[in-house]
Amino acid sequence: xxxxxxxxxxxxxxxxxxxxxxxxxxxxxxxxxxxxxxxxxxxxxxxxxxxxxxxxxxxxxxxxxxxxxxxxxxxxxxxxxxxxxxxxxxxxxxxxxxxxxxxxxxxxxxxxxxxxxxxxxxxxxxxxxxxxxxxxxxxxxxxxxxxxxxxxxxxxxxxxxxxxxxxxxxxxxxxxxxxxxxxxxxxxxxxxxxxxxxxxxxxxxxxxxxxxxxxxxxxxxxxxxxxxxxxxxxxxxxxxxxxxxxxxxxxxxxxxxxxxxxxxxxxxxxxxxxxxxxxxxxxxxxxxxxxxxxxxxxxxxxxxxxxxxxxxxxxxxxxxxxxxxxxxxxx
Length: 331
Fold this sequence. Notes:
Elements: H1 2-12, H2 17-22, H3 29-40, H4 43-56, H5 62-85, H6 90-97, H7 100-134, H8 138-187, H9 190-199, H10 219-236, H11 238-245, H12 250-263, H13 267-287, H14 310-317, H15 322-330
Helix pairs in contact: 1-8, 3-8, 3-11, 3-12, 4-7, 4-13, 5-10, 5-12, 6-7, 7-8, 7-14, 8-13, 8-15, 10-11, 13-14
């Protein structure tokens, strides 16, 4: 990762504001697609989403699959408008469309929201990983993450970020899918996973469309409310749109978006199922009186606040996936 960052800084170093913030609007489709995917997937997914899967099942995967359709909206409805306006940021577009007051309000709102939601969640998730895997203090972990991110963002601009994202996407995808395969090989087949969860009274874990009364993922919320609110994230939010604004052409932007949409199908396999396997290992241990997966009885994955440790526990307890997963989180 360090070699890639230094190489990108040297080769594609920013000389102007457009270079720094938009990579001189010359990004290839594959860089756009992988960057969109990697910008969304991170430690907070391998901690939070896998934890949600351990606590509630496959329903959380609905966020991933609906995202694929929202990305298509970005490429065929929103991006052509931004491109025609020739803007560099969403606040700039808002000012042109409305007025400078709206631009300032959007900037302040986005700044606060980024700190409270995205940045805080990412740092907390990274801290959990380093705590479980390396035994690092939460504050030490957060300091290291902030320092490394600030260095390569400041030195190389969007170009360094997007090419680094490409490597991260490769690590996430290969590492996550390999992790799923290894986790299944340690536990058993999909049928055994379902039977174990059914026996533990968790039969609804495999329901992705759930009744309106479900407190976590009712189909009404997932197919209506969640999609409406997620339009902001995928089609208007500066973090996502900036990657597409850097495209060298409309064709490159749309091809990259299609790639990202296909990649968004994968997290349910590389994140959600491993989280469910971790919960099934815990339940199997409890139901067998410690005869199966003995070390899992002490994990307390049945407690919702402990479920965020599901994937990190897989790293520690299923030794065969330690190496690739450590690389995944560090990068």
